[in-house]
Amino acid sequence: MKKIRINLSYVLSVHILALLIMSLQRTVLLLTNTQHIENVETKAGWIFSAFLRGVWFDNVIACYISILPLAVFCIIGLFNKVSKLAFNISNIYYHCCPLKAESLPILDISSCISVFVFRIIKSK
User: Fold this and answer.
1) How high does pLDDT run on average in the chain?
2) What pLDDT, in 10s, does the model give residues 104-122?
3) How many Cα neighbours within 13 Å face the side chain of 13?
4) 86-94 long-range contacts, Cβ below 8 Å, gap at least 24?
5) What is the DSSP letter of 82?
6) Which residues have a Cβ under 8 Å from the Cβ of 89 and sit 6 or more positions away?
7) Mean pLDDT throughout 40-46?
8) More confident residue, 120 or 35
9) What is the distance between the alpha carbons of residues 87 and 65, in angstroms, rounded to a whole number?
């Protein structure tokens, strides 16, 4: 059961870090384009609504991207295995993802996390 936790924590950590980085990217985009919202009466409401929809959209895209690695890691985890090959293939998948424009933050995150996961595995 410990092996499936390692596999699932990899996919979950890629997902959460991608959401954080995409939110940071959205904040920078807002700060660079504040001059375009001068005529809006309730700026705080519009900004909150835009951020909420942006996080929702980023979460949906990240879920669509991560569904295949999640399924593969669940199957591998059911056999109580941790496969370095599976991590490498998922990194390639994240790099070659068809939704590359939306998944740019995921690209480097998956590689960094897999290195961290392998260090945890080797220490046990």
Assistant:
1) 75
2) 555 556 556 665 555 555 5
3) 16
4) 86/7, 87/10, 87/114, 87/117, 87/118, 88/114, 90/10, 90/11, 90/114, 93/68, 93/69, 94/14, 94/65, 94/69
5) -
6) 72
7) 72
8) 35
9) 15
